[in-house]
Write the structure tokens for this entry.
Amino acid sequence: MNLPVLILAGIIAVVSIEFGVTFGTNDGPLDEVVVREYQGAKLDDLSAFRENSIKGIQYVNIEEYALKIGGLAETPYFMNYIELQELQHVERLVTLHCVEGWTAKMLWEGIPLMNLIEKADPDDRATNVIFKSTDGYITILTLDYIRERNSILAGSLNGIGLPPAQGFPLIVVADDRLGYKWARWVE
């Protein structure tokens, strides 16, 4: 079993996700999502979200998936995928802008990151969150950024469950940041 890690950093606070990962091909077609509107805005379909990951699409074994929030925190804890689905979810209409020049306007639904972080009672010295993906990708967002924008870990887009190509089980939605800040398959 892999021991992936998502880190709240500053002076080091840790949020980690533990799960098994398998690698393979994407079994589902991208044309399953019908382009629709949300509050008058046209949404892009999944084909607008291009695959540009380091090691290809990652496939997460949901039976072994567990999110750990801890590190520089008073009360670290674990949550499995089912428990995460029972938490409050919010919807956000956000356009992903890729440094490669493409965009994807989608309706994201997920868990506010601050709800997860605050439950662990982080130390006041924690200032950053480091996200590491199963394909080896790492990115950082400040705790202030996450708080100010009410950033989410999304598990669905355009009304469907997040497909593996888009980051199943969870992707960091980093509105107003280029796509390289949107960690998929966060560990």
Observations:
- Residues 6-24+34-181 form a domain with the Sulfite Oxidase; Chain A, domain 2 fold (CATH 3.90.420.10).
- DSSP finds three helices and 13 strands in the chain.
- The radius of gyration is 16 Å.
- The longest strand covers residues 58-70.
